[in-house]
């Protein structure tokens, strides 16, 4: 399937080391010269008359950004005035700083936007007009500035139109699963950008660009370390290193969190126990936390994975999750810190359907967690599968702060090589109706916390960032980082809006380019589901590294095998989670149970997630189930080829390095889609004993060959 | 010692993501606009009249380079003529291709330069004058083109001066100690640039820039994998990946080698033995090698570490190194491949001074190795210490091909953070007199092979390249990669010449900049030796990771402890390797034994390497040994501060990102130099029981504190 290598070489030769080709490093902050003359002169006039109503580190960060904008868009330097009335056109400051020039109405309007909101628009003062970006806090202004820059990049800036915005979720957070040796669990973009060894003495300029990129999309918190945690991060040496990063991030409004290993009192505290009710343990965490705040006065808090997949936790001491979480929360509370406790818990000693275990653990504890605890719940109950129904905990607990955990890194969605825009999947989850606590509740409305008066709200995304020059390995994976930020800021935004914005910022505004790339983006998730896990199939990937298909994976603990999940046999396929089966469906609201309980009514995308269905079951389009599975897999492969054609048609309009980067990866994606289709269909055919539909490309290859493939150095583990 | 972080932040802010600051990626190939008008017009006239006397992939690579030169230096595109007499000024081709326009004398002169040599100068033809770059093979022309480019960069190009050159060593090779999981043993610049997982489908543009950089300094071979080898590299899947890299490198004249794990017949061949005399083992390697050549027709060969530090080898089967090496060499011979066998062998089961073990193993085998075997010998007998006397094998075996193994990566010389220019150390080794096989022989002359009629000559350097944006972690570590290439091309070159050339290519030609940076470079090695291991001390670094001082390291096998090497006691310090001691000195030629056998005559830099000397031993400057040790350590620290001052004085003349990068690292180097001095002097004082000289900065801190420091995630292991 690959073109001869020499082809590629010749292709690449012309944009190596010294050329100006785009290597993707600048992300969506690639400030290109403004083409449109009236926009150009308007921006120029603003950048030549800037006045800041004060000084602080965030304003310095804004100045740096304006310098870069002026350099990139106008090839000039901005002019900062020392007198607000002397040749100024552009005012930047907080509501308080500008109070003398703002009407009371405007002040009230801005105040209502909260700590991170901003307003931008024209102000009349003493007969003159000024463009202003105003927030209640400097960080809000920073967000406003990035929004203003985006409006220039997308050619939508209009001075006379006012614009105001504020985030709907309080904590918008990246979770790095980065280990202290710089490997990244489920990382497919190289290695950890945190160079712990050279910290705190060496500040890589990349840390600043990381902060800029996050701030530009509204991310305001990062957890630096893997949830499968190493207690060493809590030693003094590492606190100093984390402090150095926190100091870099602070002007960008980004707080640092760290993962806390529950057994740290034993590993680094010299204690014999980590029992959360033990006074010495309580004292250990109090002191540790105090020390942390001595280095990082605005430290965000801890993120904890406990009693899951072998991680230590309160269960070892006969305590429950609330007792474990609250003990840490108490240590953080005096400093205003937050304790995030993951709901992704399941045990191989528990025979209950893994799907049910989180609800079984957490529902009885609802209301028992401290105010500064947030329960972080994955979007689905299994584990970031290509598609999952929403997690039944959303809506089930309503007296506890809950937050979302999405996975930006593509552990189950093509890893290093597949183009998959995840936003439609996230949107599907956020718009899912929970029917609890109110009949109109959705996952998104639960997260916004209004219905429950939830004080702390959170959306976390497991980072896809690494040392690769373009940050995310696949250029298009940048869109998922971008989209996560946008969605955390506003869970009601649509995939179409995000796709358009990212594409324009990344590839410019040629309408053919935007239309075609958006088409690629918006179809890519359904395409991946088709060639990986259609119709509600799940957890049938390669063992451990999760790379490629592995529906035959057996051995070891049952809930890590594939047949546990697909349940294929001579009669049919799928996991019966109705009350006739595991009963997991009953953890949802009755309305959901009713909608999804009948295999003829449930949306087909979730069919095999909840039902064991005969091979000859009739799908809505008249296919039997077996035919439908085959058609989905085949369509997935064909849609990848369609993506390739669409991409190829843009060759003349895309930077050559970017073009070839994506072209090569799409060729790999085509091979991997074929691999998934062939391997899965050949395998499932051993149960269905039915021929493939004649209208599909016949799966080729030998099942034994596919089963024999080994990837001992696959990345991300 | 560090400045407050916020300082650094503000500093960095102004050259992040979007600016044009220099991140070091372009190495010494950073083609900047030509300032000098006459040079500019001369180069312009040449680049607008290029004629190639033929077509081949290397000429394509040359065209790519000329495109980049024209773009960077002139902001234009070159003009390639299709007719050699039509508006051409610049002729490029092989001697054969140009035979009609060259005098017989000139042809003979060029022919004598060999396959990789080149000539450049003016040719008169039919009354017109052309500038020409000519070689016997395309790769020679490529080297000539890079040499011509360098002459422009250093403003020394003069059309009317002829220049010819050819390498003095045949194989000029990088050894990557890169693992298949992308970790790099002794790597301090991030991770392996070989993205095995995405190969062969994805060709990172960086591979091409890597090839360009190597070709530009004459490197013509690379071993891709760690000498502590993984047999998986010899499986078909990985051969395809290696082939993809070989295809990229081929136009640049670079051959691919791989490391062969001696026990591969067992691990991937399904055999019960790896006995080199076993017919099945012989057949395994023959087939494996044939398969390798089916993918890479010009595959270089294998590099093998056997029976050393736990690696498998022929000893397990009662066979010697020659029997092991020759078996592999026989498999390679039909394809023209080369077998490189490392002489770095020692065993913890052997009680003999580790210094002696290589000679004990290899001297008796001299003459028993096949013609296509090269014995690769480290510069010294222990292990890449900050300074070592030359390895006694050089000159001791003269009927066997021998090659040099230098270490470019700074395992023992400051790793990720210290500025140490290694060339003076290498030069010291190459100029060391071996007195064998001729009275005037040096290590360098032995390597050139003329005295022994050695057919294959080799200089290998253990790579310091990784995924860090600037390739080598420390910007100045680029100088070591550069210097290695230059020295492998011409072992007679001086450190001063290399320093000047690298500095001019990297920082431009401002004479203050060049003078001061050369001063930093040329003093840096002696400085590091002073604060790490003065007067012949060695192997006193931290255990395993080798980061920082560890003169107290005890436990485990004796030859991996520090006291085994420094032998400090209440009487004195140093390893007696004279005939009264281990006798290692006697492995050298009698002239060396005579020069070094007397502690009063031996150069003091090697004193404690060969002699156990009383604390009150008088040094040449009148110091006692104890005082001398203290003065050396103290001078090392002070010289780092001098380097800092020199660097600081250049702030206005250096790119701000580069300036701050080096400034931060020099601050860390100062801290680490103090750490070495304090830890070592406090430790050795427990034996000497003498006060520190009053004229040094008194070592501060607590020995127990230094001993307690742990670096569980230090890079490179």
From TrEMBL, chains A, B:
Signal peptide positions on this chain: 1-21
Domain Alpha glucuronidase N-terminal residues, every copy: 27-148
Entry's Gene Ontology cellular component terms: extracellular region
Matches recorded under InterPro entries: A-glucoronidase_C_sf (IPR037054), GH (IPR017853), Glyco_hydro_67_aGlcAse (IPR011395), Glyco_hydro_67_aGlcAse_N (IPR005154), Glyco_hydro_67_C (IPR011099), Glyco_hydro_67_cat (IPR011100), Hex-like_dom2 (IPR029018)
Keywords per UniProt: Carbohydrate metabolism, Glycosidase, Hydrolase, Polysaccharide degradation, Signal, Xylan degradation
Domain Glycosyl hydrolase family 67 C-terminal: 472-695
Amino-acid biosynthesis as UniProt keyword: no
Record-annotated active site: 309 (proton donor), 383 (proton acceptor), 411 (proton acceptor)
One of the protein's GO biological processes: xylan catabolic process
Pfam families from the UniProt entry: Glyco_hydro_67C, Glyco_hydro_67M, Glyco_hydro_67N
Catalysis: reaction(s): Hydrolysis of (1->2)-alpha-D-(4-O-methyl)glucuronosyl links in the main chain of hardwood xylans
UniProt superkingdom: Bacteria
Gene3D superfamilies cross-referenced by the UniProt entry: Alpha-glucuronidase, C-terminal domain, Chitobiase/beta-hexosaminidase domain 2-like, Glycosidases
Coiled-coil features, chain-numbered ranges: none
EC number: 3.2.1.131
UniProt GO molecular function: alpha-glucuronidase activity; xylan alpha-1,2-glucuronosidase activity
Domain Glycosyl hydrolase family 67 catalytic: 152-471
The protein's enzyme class: hydrolase
Cited PANTHER family: ALPHA-GLUCURONIDASE A
Family: Belongs to the glycosyl hydrolase 67 family.
Assembly mode: Homodimer.
Name recorded for this polypeptide: Xylan alpha-1,2-glucuronidase
């Amino acid at each position: 399937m690959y073109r001869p290598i020499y082809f590629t070489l010749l292709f690449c030769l012309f944009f190596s080391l010294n050329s100006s080709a785009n290597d993707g490093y600048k992300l969506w902050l690639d400030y290109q010269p403004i083409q449109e003359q009236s926009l150009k002169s308007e921006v120029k006039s603003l950048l030549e008359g800037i006045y800041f109503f004060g000084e602080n580190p965030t304003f310095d960060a804004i100045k740096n950004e304006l310098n870069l904008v002026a350099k990139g868009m106008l090839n000039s330097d901005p002019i900062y005035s020392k007198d607000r009335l002397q040749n100024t056109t552009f005012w930047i400051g907080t509501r308080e700083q500008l109070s003398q020039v703002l009407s009371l109405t405007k002040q009230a309007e801005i105040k209502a936007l909260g700590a991170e909101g901003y307003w931008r628009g024209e102000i009349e003062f003493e007969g003159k007009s000024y463009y202003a970006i105003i927030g209640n806090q400097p960080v809000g202004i920073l967000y406003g500035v990035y929004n203003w820059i985006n409006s220039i990049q997308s050619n939508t800036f209009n001075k006379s139109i006012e614009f105001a915005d504020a985030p709907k979720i309080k904590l918008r957070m990246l979770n790095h699963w980065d280990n202290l040796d710089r490997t990244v669990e489920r990382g497919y973009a190289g290695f950890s950008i945190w160079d712990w060894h050279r910290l705190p003495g060496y500040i890589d300029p990349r840390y600043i660009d990381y902060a800029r990129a996050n701030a530009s999309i509204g991310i305001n918190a990062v957890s630096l370390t893997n949830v499968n945690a190493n207690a060493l991060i809590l030693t003094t040496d590492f606190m100093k290193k984390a402090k150095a990063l926190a100091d870099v991030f602070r002007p960008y409004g980004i707080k640092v969190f760290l993962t806390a290993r529950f057994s740290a009192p034993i590993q680094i505290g010299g204690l014999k126990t980590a029992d959360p009710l033990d006074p010495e343990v309580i004292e250990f965490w109090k002191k540790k936390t105090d020390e942390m705040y001595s280095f990082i006065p605005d430290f965000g808090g801890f993120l904890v994975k406990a009693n899951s997949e072998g991680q230590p936790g309160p269960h070892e001491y006969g305590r429950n999750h609330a007792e474990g979480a609250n003990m840490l929360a108490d240590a953080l509370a005096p400093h205003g810190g937050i304790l995030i406790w993951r709901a992704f818990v399941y045990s191989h000693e528990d025979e209950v359907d893994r799907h049910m275990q989180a609800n079984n653990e957490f529902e009885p504890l609802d209301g028992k967690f401290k105010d500064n605890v947030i329960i972080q719940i994955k979007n689905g109950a299994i584990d970031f599968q290509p598609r999952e129904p929403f997690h039944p905990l959303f809506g089930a607990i309503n007296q506890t702060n809950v937050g979302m955990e999405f996975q930006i890194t593509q552990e189950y969605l093509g890893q290093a090589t597949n183009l998959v825009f995840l936003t439609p999947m996230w949107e599907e989850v956020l718009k899912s109706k929970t029917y609890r606590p109110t009949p109109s509740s959705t996952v998104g409305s639960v997260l916004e916390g209004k219905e429950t008066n939830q004080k702390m709200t959170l959306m976390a995304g497991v980072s896809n960032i690494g040392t690769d020059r373009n940050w995310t390995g696949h250029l298009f994976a940048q869109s998922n980082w971008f989209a996560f930020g946008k969605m955390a800021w506003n869970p009601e935004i649509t995939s179409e809006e995000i796709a358009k914005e990212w594409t324009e910022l990344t590839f410019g505004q040629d309408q053919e380019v935007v239309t075609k790339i958006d088409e690629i983006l918006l179809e890519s998730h359904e395409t991946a589901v088709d060639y990986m896990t259609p119709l509600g199939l799940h957890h049938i990937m390669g063992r451990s590294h999760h790379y490629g298909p592995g529906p035959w994976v057996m051995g070891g603990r049952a809930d890590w095998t594939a047949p546990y999940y697909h349940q294929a046999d001579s009669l049919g396929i799928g996991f019966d989670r109705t009350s006739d089966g595991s009963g997991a469906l009953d953890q949802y609201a009755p309305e959901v149970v009713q909608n999804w309980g009948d295999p003829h009514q449930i949306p087909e995308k979730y069919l095999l997630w909840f039902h064991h269905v005969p091979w000859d079951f009739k799908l809505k389009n008249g296919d039997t189930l077996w035919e439908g599975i085959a058609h989905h897999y085949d369509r997935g492969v064909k849609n990848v080829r369609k993506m390739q054609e669409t991409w190829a048609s843009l060759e003349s309009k895309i930077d050559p390095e970017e073009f070839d980067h994506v072209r090569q990866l799409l060729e790999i994606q085509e091979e991997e889609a074929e691999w998934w289709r062939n391997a899965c269909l050949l395998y499932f055919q051993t149960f269905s004993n039915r021929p493939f539909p004649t209208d599909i490309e016949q799966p080729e290859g030998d099942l034994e060959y596919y089963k024999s493939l080994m990837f001992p150095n696959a990345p991300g583990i």
